[in-house]
Every structure is written in structure tokens, then in C-alpha cells.
Amino acid sequence: MSQAPLIAIDAMGGDVGPEVMVDGAAMARADFPELRYRFFGEEAAIRAELANFPDFADRVEIVHSDVVISGADKPSQALRRSRDSSMGLAIQAVKSGEAQAALSAGNTGALMAIAKVALRTIPGIDRPAISALLPTLGENDVVMLDLGANAECDVENLIQFAVMGAAYARTVLDIERPRTALLNIGSEDQKGTDDLREAAARLREATSLPLEFVGFIEADRLSRGHVDVVATDGFSGNIAIKSVEGTARFVADLIRRAFTSSLRSKAGFMLSRPAANLLKRTLDPNNHNGGVFLGLNGLVVKSHGSADANGVRNAIGVAAKMAKADITRKITQDLQNFPKHQVEDAAE
């Protein structure tokens, strides 16, 4: 690639908009000094924020758009307004090949709808999935998908999610054969729906896949570090990740309350501050920000709408790593090396 990689950013998405999107990109310079950025949105607001980073201006382009996809817009409404919107223009930059990735903190359903129509899916993938990293007690994070794009999934979808998740883990976590599991209500082979059991049987027999299928995993084991990839339908995945995030906030608030309940507990907090800070960093969702839309002919990354500048910085890091590794090509190769008829033969 002759030119430095370009990240297309929807500056208007999320709870704050240009303030955190520009600040996060400026922070990301320390990690990825080679990146260039193209911000889409209200030019005056973007320039006002860029004024705080005068040495960042040479890495930035601005494309004005006064059309913003709101959190209340339905996907169908967003599609009708996508042509001139900040979100739609960012994705178009990926479609045209000008940008290597698009980043938005806006409406997830709208972002997925626009991305699917503009970029289409990789051959062999029926539906794209939202994937993200969750912290664990193991040596690395765990890749989980789908986190909300597909409420209902069949056997083929689950197998494709496993393949895509493994490609993600090989790229970001540098694991040659990621330990891959399906989320279920129990770890026993007879547990779960017919689709889950069939998908498990076919993955277990498909030894040509670049992954190690380890069976089922229950939601309470997600953070133990026993697996590297967890595949599930978007309905279950969305509930699971929100439960994990909610529990993390609950634990953090509970500890904060305990340490401020008395003078003795405050003194105890001073002694245990390093451990408390480590816990805070581990549980902070901003440190694991950046959901990737896997399965599309182009890279799209979704930031939490409530992310701060550090969260946006981390989401840009995800986009940069995935673009450098060419995750789309890697998934395509995996699917070519594992044709659909081989999966079907393995089930017989």
C-alpha cells in the first residue's frame, strides 16, 4: 500500500459526537502514527475540536455533512437518508477503496443496514455478525459473536460465525488454532436446540478448519479464559454481553461504595489502590471498545455510543489492526479452504 492507511470516521455518532471522535483519533497517533483520517459530519464542529490539536491537522480531511443518523432512526429510515449522511459517507469511503476501515459510534442497527447494502457480504457468508473482545482471567481476551446483528440464526450461520471468529482471533490475538465454542445452556452434548447440536457436530468433524472446536460453553464461563472464540446467535449474544458489562459496572460500584463507607475502609483503600486500579482498567468497557462487523466486503467498526476518547482510541486500534491483517481476505480464504459441501459431508 503506497499511501498511509485511511480511517473514515462518522464524527456525529454517539452520545458526544465530534468531541470524543476527534480526541480519540488524536490520542491514537501515539499507537498508529502512520494513520490518516477523514471525518464526516458538521464541518464547523469538527474544526472547532481539531483546533485543540494543531499538530494533528496534517493527518486529517473533513467532508461536510449536515445529515445525521440518530439513535431513534429505524434501519429502513437510515437507508433512505444514508446517501448524504455522515454515517453513509464513511461507509462509502470504504466501498470506493479510499478508506481501509470505517468507524462510527452511531445507531448500531442503522450502521449494519447501511453497511450490508453498500458493502454486501463475502461469498459464502449469509449474514454478517458483530464481534468484539471480552476480558478474561486467561492469557488473552475472548472473541465473541454475534452480539446483536442477527436475532435468529440457523446451523449455517453458527458455523460461519465460528469460522469468522476464529479468523478474528488469529488476527488480533495471534493464536494459530483458536479454541472455539458455541454458547449454550449447558456443556453436555445433548443440551440446547437442534440447530446448536447440529452445528456442534459439524464443527467437531470439520478438522480442516483453522480452529480447535471444544464444544459448548455456558455464559458463566465466558470470562474464565478457557476458550478463545464464542459463537452464538445475536439475541443470546447481545443479552450475554450486556449482562457482562452490567455486572462489571455493578462490581466496580460495589467496591467503590465499600471503600468509602467509613474512615477505616478509606484507609484500606489507600493500601489496596494498585489492585483497585487494575480492576478498574480490566472492567472498563472503554478498554475493550470496538465491535467489528465481520463478513462484509469491507471493514466497519462500531464504537460504544457512550465511549470516551480513550474508548474511541481503542476502537481505532481495532480498525487499524484488522485493516493491516486484511481480515476480509483471511475469512474468504478460510471459507474457500472449507467449502460448504465438506461441512455437509461431515454431518453425514
Description:
This protein is an alpha/beta fold. It has 2 domains: 1-119, Isopropylmalate Dehydrogenase (3-Layer(aba) Sandwich), CATH 3.40.718; 122-288 and 325-348, Isopropylmalate Dehydrogenase (3-Layer(aba) Sandwich). Helix content is 46%, strand content 15%. The chain has helices at residues 18-28, 43-50, 75-81, 86-95, 108-119, 155-172, 194-205, 234-259, 263-283, 309-325, 327-337, 340-347; strands spanning 6-10, 36-41, 60-64, 101-104, 129-134, 142-145, 179-183, 212-217, 229-231, 291-294, 300-302. It has an 11-stranded mixed beta sheet, sandwiched between helices. α3 crosses α5 and α8 runs antiparallel to α9 (263-283). The termini are far apart.
Alpha plus pi helix count: 12
- The amount of beta strand, in percent, is 5-15%
CATH class term of the largest domain: Alpha Beta
End-to-end C-alpha gap? 45 Å
Low-pLDDT segments, ≥5 res: 341-348
Rg on CA atoms, Å = 21 Å
Question: Would you identify the CATH H-level superfamily of the largest domain?
Answer: Isopropylmalate Dehydrogenase
What is the CATH third-level topology name of the largest domain?
Answer: Isopropylmalate Dehydrogenase
CATH architecture of the largest domain: 3-Layer(aba) Sandwich
Total individual domains: 2
The number of strands is: 11
Q: Main sheet: which strands, in order across?
A: 3-2-1-4-11-10-5-6-9-7-8
Overall geometric form: globular
Percent of residues in helices = 40-55%
Which series of helices and strands comes N to C?
Answer: EHEHEHHEHEEHEHEEHHEEHHH
Structural class: alpha/beta
Mean pLDDT across the residues is: 87
Biggest sheet architecture: 11 strands, mixed
